[in-house]
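Troubleshooting log. The previous structure file for this entry was overwritten by mistake, so regenerating from the original sequence record. Sequence copied from the archived sheet and checked twice against the printout by T.R.
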Amino acid sequence: MPGTPFGLAHRDYSPGRALIDQGGALALATDLNPGTSWCENMQMMLALACRYMRLLPAEALVAATLNAAYAIGLGRIVGSLEVSTRTTTGCCPTGSGQTW
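Regenerated output below.
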């Protein structure tokens, strides 16, 4: 939860890079709460994980989706784009008439 040290203005973040390098699985979340982390933006958490925890963008994305789903016991049901998993998608208008 990289939002916590960011919200508290701490310099030290969790050793995400070391955990991954040693074969561990990392999950990312916002830890949205009024005491330590007011940020609910997952894109911000991915950016913080890449910048301060030294994750590659692909590693941060997996940590925020598939690994996070497994962390709460739902990895076989959600968290990836596969035939066997449930997926929720959103579509935002682009204003250019282009469809996705």
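The chain has a mean pLDDT of 84. Archived copy saved in two places this time.
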